[in-house]
From TrEMBL:
It comes from the Bacteria. GO terms for molecular function: DNA binding; transposase activity. This is IS110 family transposase. It comes from Ligilactobacillus murinus. Residues 7-158 form the Transposase IS110-like N-terminal domain. Residues 227-299 form the Transposase IS116/IS110/IS902 C-terminal domain.
């Protein structure tokens, strides 16, 4: 008769802490600390089987972290069933708050596996992972560009140089920057900043073109085109949301989806007192921040009026998808203006729009657009 052993793994770059529990009795079958090598994990499992003189079926698990999906894939190749545990869903005893170390963490993970008190992280296929990493790389460069823009503006402010035009980083603004009458090291400093700005801008444009090409792959073309029917959702945004989530059907309803994105209000209630605070900010931060950016773009413009850009993106799509996207846009714009009229802070209103936009996106991806 096989014994089910739950193998908790507290993993780091250089070391693994392992703890195996008997699935029936809860007895600790073995504990060890080893180098970060999957072969040593397999040897540990084989040693437990020899010591207890019985066949063991292993269920391994580790917390989502720096190793990503790589360890999961390596363990699966070795024939070891493995889950990646979402940290925010795991049960943790009060003792872990007083005494915390790698050995206890491994035991805590094993107990969660044995008692099923966790939710596993969804593991996408390799192609989705590759596209996801490419998009995240582009977002890192966008953050660098934003930083350079801030540095240039700070430099100008320190020297009393203020642009009188309406918008920054337009053709006129860049021409003004390049024609400033500076001398010596000040001129050289600004030129270096602008060289960095130009280099990053060119790279981001190239990355965007590559993502445009990827969006026309068979597996992405239809869902991305449908998401683009929504105002505020361009190709890069649609690819980001679709690839980061990958399988929308794993969420039974919109409430589960928005909770995963950390867009639902947190709560701290006791007795008759009910206190709801800001959003939880748990789950996928990339999709959450992307939806907030989309919400900022969506609420602009006149309610019920579609721009030429949106009409162009909707061209060739099914009439029910277009109608659903238009209904979503109008509803969200009206909701935003209503909240602003009621005196709600703009950030609160935008977050509410992002949360409801996520619900409409879930409807498109799961084909529930009635």
């Amino acid at each position: 008769m096989k014994t089910i052993a739950y193998l908790g793994m507290d993993v780091h770059k250089d070391t693994f802490n392992l703890c195996a529990l008997d699935g029936t009795t809860g007895e600790i079958l073995g504990e060890t600390r080893c180098a970060s090598d999957v072969k040593l994990v397999k040897k540990f499992i084989e040693k437990i089987a020899r010591d207890h003189k019985r066949e063991i079926q292993v269920k391994a698990g580790y917390e989502a972290g720096c190793l990503g999906y790589s360890l999961h894939d390596l363990l699966e190749k070795q024939g070891i069933d493995c889950d990646i545990l979402a940290p925010t869903t795991m049960h943790s005893s009060s003792k872990n708050k007083v005494v915390k170390n790698d050995r206890l963490d491994a035991k805590m993970i094993a107990l969660n596996l044995a008692n099923n008190t966790y939710k596993p992280v969804y593991v996408p296929d390799k192609e989705d992972v590759c596209v996801k990493e490419y998009i995240r790389m582009m977002n890192d460069f966008k953050k660098s560009l934003k930083k350079v823009k801030q540095q240039i503006k700070a430099f100008l402010l320190r020297h009393g140089l203020i642009y009188q035009g309406k918008s920054s980083w337009t053709i006129a603004h860049l021409k003004w920057l390049k024609n400033l009458e500076l001398t010596g090291l000040l001129k050289e400093t600004l030129e270096e900043y602008l060289l960095q700005y130009d280099a990053l801008t060119d790279k981001i444009e190239r990355f965007s073109q590559r993502i445009e090409e990827l969006s026309h792959k068979r597996r992405y073309e239809k869902p991305v085109a449908q998401l683009r029917c929504l105002k505020g959702v361009d190709t890069t945004t649609a690819m980001t949301i679709h690839v980061e989530i990958s399988d929308f059907t794993r969420f039974p309803n919109t409430k589960a989806f928005t909770a995963y994105l950390g867009l639902t209000p947190s709560e701290h209630s006791s007795g008759e007192k009910v206190n709801r605070n800001g959003i939880t900010k748990q789950g996928n931060a990339t999709v959450r921040s992307t939806l907030v950016e989309c919400a900022n773009a969506l609420v602009k413009g006149t309610i019920g009026i579609k721009s030429k850009r949106v009409k162009a993106r909707q061209k060739g799509q099914a009439s029910e998808v277009i109608a659903y996207a238009d209904k979503a846009t109008e509803r969200l714009q009206r909701k935003y203006h209503r909240m602003m009229y009621q005196g709600k802070p703009r950030n609160v209103a935008i977050t509410a729009i992002a949360r409801e936009l996520a619900c409409f996106i879930w409807g498109i991806e799961t084909k529930q657009i009635d």
